[in-house]
């Protein structure tokens, strides 16, 4: 039976990096007889330009019908000044996450040993790094109501958002994190701001309650400001981190730099049944878009995660990861992970090298 993969290139470097991941998927599909059917649709700024909205109904229908989704990135300065906040590229991405119930966001930050010198941190601080950030993705301040900009007395404008989680939302992301920790080093750090925000007092309470079901997992708690500092100071102290939507967004970008570049960080966003959307953690990188400069490896590794988590093709995912490691062994580097003595390659040359490694 064939499996439907929906590809959403998006904006900026999105189409460039996704093109390389698509080549990889097409190759392993043929090599390993996976029976994948790949289709593409518009999202983000590209969809605004074509259809006037960031998430056309046809794209949402295709996303619902697909077995898995691979997304590039959305957004860019051309759409940032749109006065209607609903007609922003980012709303397309948030709309898919929320409509498909993709609440469980896994962002693994793994340092390939070959890149120990590409990190801005000392090699001894990051070598051997392997942490997993579990980010709640469909709730919290990103989606809380009420929200908006209103006028106070005297015509003073005031912007407001609502940071809200109910206990069921906390419990279900907590379970994802405890299960992930159980399958790894059995240490879970829950990140909150329980010294200030009531919503995260409840978060902490529910994590404690859940930990009774997971006596084999060691639970700790950390305030988010300290967590940001500890990630840079001594990141290897962490195994799995679990946190809400906005804290997870920020901490995962910080974790990305530990691995050498944000161009190396893949992600999975899963629903209750394990159906998922897969995307690099980075954005559309308008500063380098259209120049064949972007690192496609996070997207290629996201395709690998898709095979592992949603399509039950772990062996092929292993092959993709080994191919990524092989191209790094060949000293090939896009600009973001380049260092002295390495060979600088373009987006498509990096894709060529991964393809060649898969064929070797
Ligand atoms: N998931 C997504 O679609 C997503 C994520 C983050 C930001 N965005 C959007 O992207 C746009 C730009 O945001 P930003 O500049 O804050 O973040 P960004 O991640 O796009 O870029 C930050 C920096 O990292 C570099 N970078 C990012 N990905 C890279 C790659 N694969 N290879 C090499 N270098 C890379 C960029 O060149 C830039 O210097 C905004 O419109 C934002 O909303 C989208
Ligand atoms: C583009 C934006 C909506 C998105 C987020 O904040 O979730 C991005 O930063 C991410 O990390 O996936
Ligand atoms: Mg982000």
TrEMBL record:
Could you tell me which pathway this protein works in?
Answer: Amino-acid biosynthesis; L-leucine biosynthesis; L-leucine from 3-methyl-2-oxobutanoate: step 3/4
A GO biological process of this protein is: L-leucine biosynthetic process
Main subcellular location? cytoplasm
Q: Does the keyword Lyase apply?
A: no
Record SMART domains: Iso_dh
GO cellular component: a single term: cytosol
EC class of this enzyme?
oxidoreductase
The free-text cofactor remark is: Binds 1 Mg(2+) or Mn(2+) ion per subunit.
Function per UniProt: Catalyzes the oxidation of 3-carboxy-2-hydroxy-4-methylpentanoate (3-isopropylmalate) to 3-carboxy-4-methyl-2-oxopentanoate. The product decarboxylates to 4-methyl-2 oxopentanoate.
How would you summarize the oligomeric state and partners of this protein?
A: Homodimer.
Names of required cofactors: Mg(2+); Mn(2+)
Q: What is its EC number?
A: 1.1.1.85
Q: Where is the Isopropylmalate dehydrogenase-like domain?
A: 4-354
Q: Which reaction does it catalyse?
A: (2R,3S)-3-isopropylmalate + NAD(+) = 4-methyl-2-oxopentanoate + CO2 + NADH
List locations, semicolon-separated: Cytoplasm
Q: Please give the superkingdom of this protein's source.
A: Bacteria
The record's NCBIfam families line, in alphabetical order, gives: leuB
Family in the record: Belongs to the isocitrate and isopropylmalate dehydrogenases family. LeuB type 1 subfamily.
Q: Which residues bind NAD(+)?
A: 283-295
Alphabetized GO MF terms: 3-isopropylmalate dehydrogenase activity; magnesium ion binding; NAD binding
Q: Where is this site: Important for catalysis?
A: 142, 193
Q: What is this protein called?
A: 3-isopropylmalate dehydrogenase
Binding site residues for substrate: 97, 107, 135, 225
Per UniProt, Mg(2+) binds at 225, 249, 253
Q: Which UniProt keywords apply?
A: Amino-acid biosynthesis, Branched-chain amino acid biosynthesis, Cytoplasm, Leucine biosynthesis, Magnesium, Manganese, Metal-binding, NAD, Oxidoreductase
